[in-house]
Amino acid sequence: MVNYNKIPQATAKRLPLYYRFLNNLHIQGKDRVSSKELSNAMKVDSATIRRDFSYFGALGKKGYGYNVDYLLGFFRKTLDQDENTPVVLIGVGNLGTAFLNYNFTKNNNTKIEKAFDADPSKVGKKIGNIQVYHVDELEEQIGDIHVAILTVPVAEAQPMADRLIESGVKGILNFTPARITVPNDVRVHHIDLAVELQSLVYFMKHYPLEEIE
Amino acid sequence: MVNYNKIPQATAKRLPLYYRFLNNLHIQGKDRVSSKELSNAMKVDSATIRRDFSYFGALGKKGYGYNVDYLLGFFRKTLDQDENTPVVLIGVGNLGTAFLNYNFTKNNNTKIEKAFDADPSKVGKKIGNIQVYHVDELEEQIGDIHVAILTVPVAEAQPMADRLIESGVKGILNFTPARITVPNDVRVHHIDLAVELQSLVYFMKHYPLEEIE
DNA sequence: GTGAATTAGTGAATTATTTCACGACTTTTC
DNA sequence: GAAAAGTCGTGAAATAATTCACTAATTCAC
């Protein structure tokens, strides 16, 4: 059996990418694929791909490559694609709205179930078929949801994170520039759009010729 | 003098984060800070912070820490905060609109100068004070801009990237799920929101107690 | 001024990740 | 059915990044 604690984090971060790509191949009706093809398409070294897959056992066949459906089925189980993970979204601004209109459930095992905002003019609406509640109702509405997308103004980030954690949230995708502080059983991934843009510009200037990611 | 080729990429990715944080300290009127304080606030090990800074020379003082203004000034120069990098945005959907309304120039050396979309109902408008042009005008309007934010539908990603590169773009911040193919003097950073969310969920399940990223 | 406390900078160790390169096996070609 | 081509899986090497742990310098408290 696969020991998930032995899977390098770098590998784990690539799994959703692999999954989606395999899903596309499946939809295209392709039934086999080699690590080299995957490498060209996903810009990940082919040895890295083979190594990544190998943590889960021998999934391919020498001289042949990988069977798309088999691999896809395997990742589906591994990434728990069969059970949907419910998510709440806090902060229905521009970015929040973009998420609500983004159809995550397709190709994905996550679904935004409820959205919250402090602005009364947004409360009660449905955006992308998701109901918007007032943040005051957070505690009573959150139910058994343990994942939150945080797209609030930066000043709200920490207080809102505290409330979310108090309500049982264990994972936060934080789009605010604030580096929030959480207990160590709560996982936070930061995505800072300004930092990403600035980082791109810096890399363009100083590492002009290599391919990085 | 600092040899930029010797700066680890992992360090380079943290620089914009450092910069912003120092800027906040500066605004708060703080004039000194230790690697330990920075560590607590930014969730980066203090030894890592000291190591990162040390690539740029001895910026601190033993027993004292770092002088906020000095460090900030140093990073300002290093990250070229003084000259603004112009950026174009392609695809004025929900996510694109979020970017246009996001005030990057504050705390940042980048500025979205022009936006493009194929939808005639969006062309001619101003969003977040940025003019929206029709994509057909891309080549004549792009001028000397070398950085693009790509927030178009996935099917448009590669063709649009090709056009951008043809027009002289050297850096693309790609928010589509497509892994675009580019010549090796063009830098692409991918940010895949669905992958990020899925990755968070995966890490929550399999690495419940450690702090990552 | 003196001793205690603080803190940067860094050599060395450790840990993590990627990549090379090759044996073993499969498929394809003719 | 034999030879050629393709491809995985992986040991080992290489590279990258983090962290430990200590020295030397400085500040702080009194």
TrEMBL record, chains A, B:
<comment type="subunit">
    <text>Homodimer.</text>
</comment>
<dbReference type="InterPro" id="IPR003781">
    <property type="entry name" value="CoA-bd"/>
</dbReference>
<dbReference type="InterPro" id="IPR022876">
    <property type="entry name" value="Tscrpt_rep_Rex"/>
</dbReference>
<keyword id="KW-0963">Cytoplasm</keyword>
<dbReference type="InterPro" id="IPR009718">
    <property type="entry name" value="Rex_DNA-bd_C_dom"/>
</dbReference>
<dbReference type="InterPro" id="IPR058203">
    <property type="entry name" value="Rex_bacilli-type"/>
</dbReference>
<dbReference type="InterPro" id="IPR036388">
    <property type="entry name" value="WH-like_DNA-bd_sf"/>
</dbReference>
<dbReference type="GO" id="GO:0003677">
    <property type="term" value="F:DNA binding"/>
</dbReference>
<dbReference type="GO" id="GO:0051775">
    <property type="term" value="P:response to redox state"/>
</dbReference>
<dbReference type="InterPro" id="IPR036390">
    <property type="entry name" value="WH_DNA-bd_sf"/>
</dbReference>
<comment type="similarity">
    <text>Belongs to the transcriptional regulatory Rex family.</text>
</comment>
<keyword id="KW-0520">NAD</keyword>
<keyword id="KW-0805">Transcription regulation</keyword>
<keyword id="KW-0804">Transcription</keyword>
<feature type="binding site">
    <location>
        <begin position="91"/>
        <end position="96"/>
    </location>
    <ligand>
        <name>NAD(+)</name>
    </ligand>
</feature>
<dbReference type="GO" id="GO:0003700">
    <property type="term" value="F:DNA-binding transcription factor activity"/>
</dbReference>
<feature type="DNA-binding region" description="H-T-H motif">
    <location>
        <begin position="17"/>
        <end position="56"/>
    </location>
</feature>
<dbReference type="Pfam" id="PF06971">
    <property type="entry name" value="Put_DNA-bind_N"/>
</dbReference>
<dbReference type="InterPro" id="IPR036291">
    <property type="entry name" value="NAD(P)-bd_dom_sf"/>
</dbReference>
<keyword id="KW-0678">Repressor</keyword>
<feature type="domain" description="CoA-binding">
    <location>
        <begin position="80"/>
        <end position="179"/>
    </location>
</feature>
<keyword id="KW-0238">DNA-binding</keyword>
<comment type="function">
    <text>Modulates transcription in response to changes in cellular NADH/NAD(+) redox state.</text>
</comment>
<protein>
    <recommendedName>
        <fullName>Redox-sensing transcriptional repressor Rex</fullName>
    </recommendedName>
</protein>
<dbReference type="GO" id="GO:0005737">
    <property type="term" value="C:cytoplasm"/>
</dbReference>
<dbReference type="GO" id="GO:0045892">
    <property type="term" value="P:negative regulation of DNA-templated transcription"/>
</dbReference>
<dbReference type="Pfam" id="PF02629">
    <property type="entry name" value="CoA_binding"/>
</dbReference>
